[in-house]
Design a protein that fits this description.
This protein has 446 residues and is α/β, with parallel strands linked by helices. The protein is built from 18 helices and 13 strands. Helix 1 runs parallel beside helix 14, helix 5 crosses helix 8 and helix 7 packs parallel to helix 8. The termini are far apart.
């Protein structure tokens, strides 16, 4: 793993220059073109959305067969409700117990979050109402792999918020079926319906509705480049939780950090994807050398070794800087999805962190705990969007309605100022609407 020295050198590597929309690099475009014979990615996705919006289920089935070359015929779009509960008995009991434990912790965290929101609204004295979204669609990645944790981390906050109907769209896995762990997680999370649809066609079906798939108010969840482009295109028709990119972590470590812990965290992050960014910043050159050597050792003989090696080589590095304050400055500039503080007295640095999706601390700190069982959702802002974005939460599934009540006191006290501002903006009818009421209030007319 390469080591770079100095604040300036590290800053250049961490610079998020917006060169390509949605991080669609020329290399990624070429990969998509080679695999799917597509020259115009955005044009293809736009066409897919239009066809699904206009032809519904028929278009969804056509695209499912086109892009999933393992299928000989399109399966039913919706998974039978009984299959969700049956899946709980099909998976390993240890996995079932772990998913239930994680679900309980995720639910507890978000109940506390909801209570805090409602308490804040109550302090507004009826001037703001809270309403939950009626129907939410969750995209759960699938295909060659499956992620039941994503189902829990998105569906449970929606349920806690009070969403009336939670729907999942997920691609078919090997054998032309949705993997049992995904269905079991859906059952545990209280998902209402599951559709075996993937890619841009799933996003389009959720956004516009088809004969089988009901239209939703919001689409959440990560996906491949087709899903991400489609989510961007349907925003405005529905809400979205953001545009999720490759996973990333920055470790800030000092001389007290455990080199094995640092290395294991970098390798774990690299395991996600060839585009994942495993980065460490330290003020100790000796630690950097130890961690680099340990990374090389740990990265061998793992099932996803090829992915790990490519991620480390293309996107990973260790930066050695003069101080931990410089490390914090670099992290704030990068705005990582995950920020792990492997330093002495980490709490003293938390107030200095301005931009991060999630901060991980503690003597045994690892992002993996947050990924699965700690409680907060692991659906985090990526690609530098932690500068303005937040983790998925109960807030994503509610909306606020302001209440403006105008009585005698407010029209007399505030009305003249409203009329002055309206006239300054050239809106005479606005000003007169206030003045009619103001005149009646002064005369005592009802």
């Amino acid at each position: 793993m390469k080591i770079v020295e100095g604040f300036e050198s590290a800053g250049k590597l961490l610079s998020r220059q917006i060169l390509y929309a949605l991080n669609i690099t020329p290399q990624l475009r070429q990969s998509v073109a080679d695999r799917y014979e597509i020259d115009d990615l955005e044009g293809t996705v736009a066409e897919m959305i239009y066809n699904v919006a206009s032809r519904g289920d028929e278009a969804v089935r056509e695209y499912t067969l086109k892009f999933d070359i393992t299928l000989e015929e399109a399966a039913p779009l919706e998974v039978a409700a009984g299959q969700l509960e049956n899946a709980c008995g099909e998976i390993d009991p240890g996995l079932l117990a772990a998913l239930k434990l994680a679900a309980g912790r995720i639910e507890d965290f978000h109940i506390k979050q909801k209570d805090a929101i409602w308490e804040g609204v109550a302090k507004m004295g009826g001037r703001q109402l809270v309403r939950t979204l009626q129907r939410v669609g969750i995209y759960a990645p699938g295909g060659t792999a499956f992620y039941p944790s994503t189902v829990l981390m998105t569906a449970i906050p929606a349920r806690v918020a009070g969403v009336e109907e939670v729907i999942i769209a997920t691609p078919l896995g090997p054998g032309g079926v949705v993997p049992a762990p995904t269905l079991a997680a859906a059952a545990i999370a209280g998902v209402d319906r599951v559709f075996a649809i993937g890619g841009a066609e799933a996003v389009a079906a959720l956004a516009y509705g088809t004969e089988s798939v009901p239209r939703v108010d919001k689409i959440c969840g990560p996906g491949n480049i087709f899903v991400t482009v489609a989510k961007k295109m349907v925003y405005g028709v529905v809400d979205i939780d953001g545009l999720k990119g490759p996973s990333e972590v920055i470790l800030i470590a000092d001389e007290t950090a455990n080199a094995s812990y640092c290395a294991s965290e970098l390798v774990a992050q690299a395991e996600h994807d060839v585009l994942a960014a495993p980065i460490m910043i330290t003020n100790s050159a000796a630690l950097a050398a130890r961690v680099a050597a340990e990374v090389e050792r740990l990265a061998k003989d793992l099932p996803r070794q090829a992915v790990i090696q490519m991620s480390l080589a293309d996107n990973g590095f260790i930066a050695v800087v003069a101080s931990l304050d410089e490390a914090v400055d670099l992290a704030n500039s990068y705005a990582p999805e995950h920020l792990c503080l492997l330093v002495e007295n980490p709490d003293s640095y938390i107030d200095k962190i301005k931009n991060a999706g999630c901060i991980v601390t503690g003597p045994r700190a690892t992002v993996v705990m947050g990924d699965y069982v700690d409680g907060p959702s692991h659906a985090l802002p990526t690609g530098g969007t932690a500068r303005f974005g937040s983790p998925l939460s109960v807030n994503d599934f509610i909306k606020f309605i302001d209440v403006v009540s105008v009585d005698e006191a407010s029209i007399k006290g505030l009305g003249p100022s409203a009329a002055v501002i309206a006239r300054a903006e050239g809106l005479e009818a606005h000003a007169r609407a206030v003045e009619i009421r103001l005149a009646d209030a002064k005369r005592g007319n009802k």
